[in-house]
Amino acid sequence: MEERIRKISERWFLVEPALFSIYCTHQLATNVLMDCPIRCGQGMVEYNPSIMETFSDAELEEALRSEMIRLFLKHPYERQPENSLPEALSFGSDMVLGQHYNFKTLHFISADNFQLPAGECFEWYVDKLNEILRQSSATPEKSEDDSDDKTDSDKQDESEDENDGGNGNEGNGNDGEGKSNNGENDNSDGGSGETDQNGEGADNGDNEASASDDGQSEFGNGLGENKNQNGFTKQQLDSARDHSALWEEDELKQQEINEIIASTTNWGSIPGTMVEQIKASLIVKLDYRKVLSSFHTSILSSHRHLTRMRPNRRSGFEQMGSIYELASKLLVGVDVSGSVTSKNLQAFYSVIARFFKYGIETIDTIQFDTTLKELETFKKASKEIKITGRGGTNFQPIFDYIREHRQYDGLIILTDGYATPPKVDFPMRTKVLWICQGEQEYNEHKDWMKKTGKVCWIEF
Question: N or C: which end of the chain has fewer CB within 10 A?
Answer without folding.
Answer: C
